[in-house]
Structure formats: structure tokens, C-alpha cells
Amino acid sequence: MNAPTRILDTMTELHRFLFCSAHGSHGEWLSEALRGAGVVLQEAGRPAQLQQRIGDLDPQLVLLDFSGASDGRPDSPDDGGIAQAVDLTRMLKRVAPKLPLVAVGTMARADGMKAAIRAGVHDFIDMASNHEEALEVVRRVLDHASAPDAAPMRHGRFIALIGARVGVGCSTLSAHLTQLAQEMRAGPRTAKQTKGNEAAAPGHVALLDLGLPAGDGLLYLNTQGHFHFAEAVQNLRRLDETLVHTAMTRTTSGLTVVPLPQDLGEMRAVAAADALSLTDRLRAFFDLIVADLGGFSNPAFVASLARAADEVWLVADQSVGAIVSLANLLHDLDEKGVERGHMHLVLNCYDPRYGMAAEQIAKRFDVPLLATLPDRPLAMLSATNQGKLILDTGRSDPYVRALQPLAERLMVSQAAAARAAQGWLGRFMGKH
């Protein structure tokens, strides 16, 4: 539909939003959602026609329909709508590079969401959410567009958890630790948070679920990951807050999870340098990043991340196999230049009755003992079979109590690092 010119004369005090879509119901939904911020003008046409209309209307923001099918249903096959939206996005980025672009669709339609992100939109409105969330997206984009460019100030801590061998509980520890740290950082879960990633708020903590067997972290957190580590590396050049908060998987508490790809062969194309660049970039968006490297089969890859980490936690248990594997792991890390100074030992499934004491193991390998976590197989299995963490089924469980100081250590260390970085930046800016 074309907005009459006379209407534009009454809009001088309002934002004008151009919505590129043939779906009338979608336009009505947006108009209702955004009426507190401006007026939605809907257009349906080819790129050349819309280019002219943009010149006439001079919108402050353009919304593009990535819902796909003509009926707007996420389960319907795409009839070319997503491809058309991609073409429009590319045209607008070429002719009006400073014009903010927001995709409109549903996160239930993964092909539309991914296409929007790869096309380079600035943010994404999920029509399955409420009007307040859509309005918040638009206001955030407009505020960012009007603000001067600035580099991200945050530089989060990076912790690498390396299992001595498969089966010592490294992935279990990583999932519980990051979930607890996220809850401590963001506060308790609220009644508004429901099942599904679409309800999660942007998180402060990220888990790189790189342990083997692949996907155990996602399994323990009862979620599914669509945007994986290899894909994040491929999109490194355009990794920004929009990509982080719309493409990456989040739990209901806001914990971000980046898993391995289902086809592990895709990781062959990921160089260690690219992985380091990704973790360094993610530090700009998260206060804490934990990499689960339990059982990862590429020693050079593991060592490269360990060298870049602020701390390395070696996870083992009291079994003979784990002790021998720990010796081999330390030998490999030493040969690859990983300093012992930031290594710590975590003994999982620990019970003094099993044999060698924790202090003896730490002294034998000359690695400081960070913690012992009790053996809780029945409680763990019961929680996992319910699709939950033991955090959800028993807050007073001995495992959770033993985990609490570790999460507190990470958050306190992160806060201290942030204060130190802020002080350095202040001194630097004061001299320039």
C-alpha cells in the first residue's frame, strides 16, 4: 500500500518505519507493536521500486519480512519470500549503508532467521514474542544508529576445562558451572522466562560445548543448538551483538551455548588461529566464557585454547585410567608451551575411600588443587533423565554445594579483571 503524501506532512515529529512485505497481517501486528515509537508504512514491491519509495518516504528504519511462506506459517514451505528479502537487504546495504535494517519473522523458522543474519541485518523481531519486545528491538537499533561508533568495552574471562580423558565428568561440570555462574550474574530465573530460547534474555556467560561425545552440554542443559562453533568461525568477520544474541542458542536463564557441529568433519576447516580469534571476539560480548574441551581429540587445538585462557582447569577422577591420562595430558601441554602457572586441578567423583587422596594427586603432578567434587551418580542420573541439571532438582545437594565456590571464584575474578581494565583505560584516556 502507498502512503499518501499528505500523511507525511503530519509525521514530522514521529519516526517512520518502512515495512517491506506483502503480508497485511504482519503489517498490522507491527503497527500495533510499534505505535509507541512511530508509524509503520508497508510496501510490497521489487527492489528498484522500493529504492524509489525509500527516497520518497525517508524512513528512519526499514523492516524486512523474513517469515518465508505467503501464509506466514513457520511450517509452510518457503515460496521465495526469504530470497526476496535477502535481495532487498543487499540492495539497501548497497544504496543506503547507514540505514538501520531489522528482520521480521519467527525464530521457529530457522532458515529465515539464518538468512537474515547472513544478509547483514542489524537485529531481528520475533513475531511470536510480545509487542514490548518488538518495541525494545526497534528502540535499541535506533539508539545504536544515533550513537557515535565505539568499540566494545567488555573483555570477559576465558576459562578452559580439559578432561584428562572421556568420561571423567568434564562436560557435566562445564554445564553446571556455567549455568550457576549465569544465574549468579543475571539473578534468579523469573516467572516470565518460559521454555524455549526465544524467552531468554541476553546472557553474561557463554559455554563453548566442544567436548566429546559431541553435544553432551546441550543434552544436560536440555536445549538444542543450531548455530555451531564452525559456523561462528565462518561468520567471524561480521560477528556482532546482533549475531550473538539472535543466532546463538540460549537456555531459559540466558546462558549462551555454542556447540560442535553435528558433522564433526566441519571442524577440520577450523584452524586453531581462527578458533582463537573467535574466543577473543566473544570476550567483547560475555563476562565469562567457559570452553569444555573434555575428550577433544586434537591436542594442538586444545593447547592453543589453553595458552589463550586466563585459567586452565584439568578435570580428572581417582581411577587409574584417569591418572595415567592426566600424566599424558600434562606432558602434551608442557611440550606445546602451556604454562603451569595458570593450571588448576579439579577432581570429580571424589571419595577419600576410593584410594589416593586429592592432595597426593595434586602434589604428584605439581598442579594446585582447586576443588574436589563428590561422586553423586544417582542424583546426577535422576536429574538427567528428567531433562534437568542437579541445580534444578536439589540445590542443597553436596555436588551443588561443592560447585558454589568455583562459580563464585569465576565471578569475583571477572569483576576484579573488569575493574583493573577500567582503571587502565581511564589512565590511558587521561593521557590522550
From TrEMBL:
GO MF, one example: ATP hydrolysis activity
Any one of the GO BP annotations: phosphorelay signal transduction system
Residue(s) carrying 4-aspartylphosphate: 65
Keywords: Phosphoprotein
InterPro entries: CheY-like_superfamily, P-loop_NTPase, ParA/MinD_ATPase, Sig_transdc_resp-reg_receiver
Gene3D superfamilies: 3.40.50.2300, P-loop containing nucleotide triphosphate hydrolases
Domain Response regulatory: 16-142
GO CC aspect terms: cytoplasmic side of plasma membrane; cytosol
Name of the featured protein: Flp pilus assembly ATPase
UniProt source species: Pandoraea terrae
Organism lineage: Bacteria, Pseudomonadati, Pseudomonadota, Betaproteobacteria, Burkholderiales
